[in-house]
From TrEMBL:
The keyword Ligase is annotated on this UniProt entry: no
Gene Ontology CC terms: cytosol
Protein origin, superkingdom: Bacteria
One Pfam family linked to the record: ADH_N
UniProt source species: Devosia limi DSM 17137
Record's protein name: NADPH2:quinone reductase
Coiled-coil residues: none
Keywords, comma-separated and alphabetical: NADP, Oxidoreductase
PANTHER family given in the database record: QUINONE OXIDOREDUCTASE PIG3-RELATED (PTHR48106), QUINONE OXIDOREDUCTASE-RELATED (PTHR48106:SF13)
PROSITE patterns given in the database record: QOR_ZETA_CRYSTAL
Amino acid sequence: MTRAIVVNQSGGPEVMQTQDWPVAGPGPGEIAIRQTAIGLNFIDTYQRSGLYPVATPFVPGNEGAGIITALGDGVDFLSIGQRVVYQGQLGAYAEERVIKADKAIPLPDGIDDAVAAASTLKGLTAYYLLFKTWPVAAGETILWHAAAGGVGLIATQWAKSLGVRVIGTVGSADKAELALRHGCDAVINYNEEDFAIRVRELTEGRGVDVVYDGVGKATFHKSLDCLRPRGLLASFGNASGVVSIPDLGILSRKGSLYVTRPTSAHYFAQRQELLEAASALFDAIASGTIKVAVNHTFPLAEARAAHIALETRQTTGSVVLLP
């Protein structure tokens, strides 16, 4: 048994309970780990609320770092005592757990556990969006919503290092200052001005090449107004609600636009793809190209408070739970 946060029914943060949870030994192709840091991500809130249905009861969380304590049969590419990080494996809000071995990423010496847990899911998201969904090129202009959030702070720094002009949106003056310090060339406070109008002003009427939108329903339609003809809207999150497009003709009327809804499962289906992306991320962190902002930590037992802070936009950068 291990201490874990358990969701026994879908709902708000109050449905999460701290309790004992069974942990079996690793089966074939699996490893057991003692966790040292756990990343908090918006997908955790979607699964807890039922927006992304998960059979209950379950342990939430999709990202963590720790030390391998046991190997299942057939695992010959990892070792007991090795530090690893993972993402995309439900069940992270626990002191100990078992994961698929091919999802474990060895941690380089220069990356500590809290930074790894704070940045792997978010950083790999930024990687596939910037390098695979639309391989950004020097001289292009992008708009990144929630630029002061966990994914945003990583992605804007990375994009800036590639010679991209970065426009970000935020919800407060403090977040605007933070985004400007992390790669944004211009920041729009959407509580003070219409971001679509301001983007057109900043681009002299042209529009941006790509909009990266993890906010969802509240920003989707105006995001289309920010794009140049044949530009791309990459919708990768639903923080404000699920996006619906009842009339696909809107894409032609606004400039033969492209829209995609990518997920990491399809970009990192093969272990080699996962390791290549992680190597690029850790190299960027080690070189200082990306500075990871672990701005909030909570004890694992206070996961409810962490979810409330995230959902009410009280956080910036990354949030880590400590077992």
